[in-house]
Amino acid sequence: MNYKGMNKNKIFNIGIWLVFTILFLRLFQVQILKHKYYYELSLKNYLKPLKLHAPRGDIYDRKGKLLAHWEPVFRVSLIPDLIPPEGLKKLKEILGRLDVDPETLKIKSNYITIKTGIPFHKALIIEENYEEFPSVVVDADPSRVYYPQFNYLSHIIGYVGEASQEEIEKFNLSPGDVVGKSGVEAVYDTILRGRDGYRFIAMDSKGAIVDLNPRPPIPPVKGKSLRLTIDSDLTHYIDSLFLPYKKGACVVYNPITGDIYSLYSKPYFGSSLIKLRWEDYLKDPSSPLINRTIQGLYPPGSVFKPISALIGLASGKIERNTVFYCPGSYRFGRRVWKCWKSSGHGSLDLIQAIAQSCDVYFYQLGLTVGLENFLNILKDFRLPIKTGIDLPGEYQVLLPDVDYYRKKYGDYGFTEGYVMNLAIGQGEVLLTPIWIAVVTGIIANRGVSAIPHLLADHNPGYIKWDLPREDFEIVREGMLQVIKGEHGTASFLYSPQFSFAGKTGTAQNPHGKDHSLFTCFSPYDNPQIVITVVVENAGHGSEAAAPIAAKILERWYEKK
Amino acid sequence: MQPRSLRGGMRKNKQFYLIGILIIAIIITLVGLLELSAIKDIFFWGQIQRLILAIVAGMLFYLLPFKNLKLLSYVFHVLILILLVVVLFSSHEDVKRWIPIGSFNIQPSEFAKLSLILVISRIYAEREKIKNSQVLKALLVTMLTAALVLIEPDLATSVTYFFIFFAITYGVGAPREILIPLILVPLSALFSIHPLLIVILFVGTFVYLKLRNFSPFIILINLFLILTVSLSTPIIWKKGLKEYQKQRLTAFLAPEKYKNREAWQIYQAQIALGSGGLTGKGLGKGTQKGLAFLPAAHTDFIFTSFGEEFGFLGTSFLLLLYSLFLVFILKLTQRTGRYHKGILLGIWGYFFYHYALNMAANVSLFPVAGIPLPFMTFGGSHIIVEFIMLSMLFRILKEEA
To answer: Which of A16, A129, B140, B363 has the highest local Cβ count within 10 Å?
Structure first.
């Protein structure tokens, strides 16, 4: 009986220690082996990270003038999972349209900023009724600030906006993050953006906030500031020179360093107004959102003549002293081609032809070279179709070749006469102001010019044009005579104070008054600056564009 | 008759174990109070009130000789059974377990555990050699009690009665031929989760009975029992269980999958326990518990909530205390009369079942069943019962002297 009793106790004891062992091992597994895993989960359970956006880097002009800054604004963030539908409805009533609708998100268990830039009184309303909005946090968020007085720089500076789905995936962002959408804001976005930080918020399982700072935040790192090559004062002056005109563009740049002093496009928008007036800008027939310096494709008109001259020289059929006679018009086939000066220029050599922009001379130059030859030489020049400026959306210029003509007119649809139009810059050629400026720089510097850029202290390289130095000197001299020569098309701009050379142009515009073009460089011997001006619907190149360029140059020398 | 010195030595040993039991009970109670104080002050003060009640109840029972208890055991149990019927008419909507008295809720099913122990022990004390009829009588009383509690519904508690019944019946040495089918019933129900397990049980039972030279009739009956129970269990599972009971089971079987719904509780409990690590987060610093991620921190999951703050060192220490507590109670059963032995085994069964099931649920080795952890879980009824049981241990030793 006793023995039996002992035996039974033994089984009970085995039961006790068996249970002990199982529980002990299980506790060891959960509390020791998987401790880290569960610890992380427990942190996630009550610590919710809230992204702290880094302020974007400032943007300065070349003289250190502040063009874009940041300021704190109120933002509202919440965890979508924890907000009851009534709470969300009420929030929408207070805030109006949300930047990010939490209902559209896939991940709803993390903090998301639903609206930025709310006024103080709305922030107060939300804070006062915090019990209705579990998890809601109202705090400061850095917001981009642009200055309306620099609106004429908006094409360069660009603007920021909420990251699209595409950008979110590309840059690993969250909904509600801000990225540069155009201008240098877009090009140098990764530099300006900085590194976002986090703060942590401890909350209980129902979303009530128990601690706003349970763990030291990871501070955001402000983005690097940018200094631009832009001279805002000069651009402001240019803006005033454009006052009489509705549309146009102007490039002022240094062909040696590539620094762009001014990149002006009229009409312009306001970076600070972009969100507010987006629809207006889109609807505006004068297209203020288009940056005409890099996106305006113009027929160059006579501005193309220096290139034609170089083609003639390169063909070997034209020399400095090649003389053609201009009676005011030229008969080719059954058609009479007029010179812009109906009384005629008389006998001209190449230099005078450029100086006086004689159309008849260039008709004959083109015919002497021959259409196919002309096009092939232009192609052999290997001029870039884009300048490579550090702005998004630069358009390619159109430099036609034989294939282009064949495609457009059919194999036999074009005649030798087409070269005449081409030689005076009408017809097929379409150029952007920035491209004209760069090519002017190449001619000015006898075969090389820096790639234009907006970021200061930065050298992206050079564009070269491999031609004999003498050829450039001939064209340069022609361009000098435009100003200096007795009969130069812009001789009225001659100033003894500084030497400059240029070329006027009048682009025929089928839709209205001709566009006025002018491109120039200065000083003549050792060119430091290139100015290209396009004024839309302003008539002859010497009338609108050239005086503007001269004034800019004048000022440039004054300030120097 | 044992030599006098030996009996005296035995008694001294038992005194030692009894003091050990008392110390452990006090430590665990204090740990429970400490943890409750870290959860909410009202739980701490509420538990103090209940403890005072429990200690008073324990003292009163110490004054009561078992001779009288033996006589009154049926009366007690019938009274409890009446209360169990009364409970069913209470105003609680889903679960009818409590009778409100003042600010307290009395849970008769807890007290039934005590009275059942007394009744069963008395039944087995009726004769020198235990007969099958006595076992059946005890089983009937157990089934009646369990049935009333099952209606509440409270599956886990009704199973407690059976476990206590088994512990006593097996411990006092009931005939094997009646024990075997009694064990086979729960085993078949448990093994019904997989057909292969049923086959193993079926074959195993057959071989065992054959080797032990049981008559073909008994073998047949047992095998029939296995089939009936294992085949009917899934049907009972489908029809009989309440929705919340099913949820607890599915949650237990796949906690990660249902972590946002049914398994929220056990998933969060795992996080709480695991995040405690070796040394824990410190008293009152449990984030899972403190920030209400861990539900029922003061009741079902008080062990987890303790584990979050005291870590593996704390939990394994507690585990050891409970195990020693149970071992010591077993030591008391040596060389006692049948009646006392029955009571001791019943008490042991009570503590073993509660501790094992509650802990298993806390470490996600068993579905959450709502079984209180002895001396720790917030609540009056079970604490009173446990203190009465403690006092009974002392009374038994006193009466043996």
So the answer is: B363
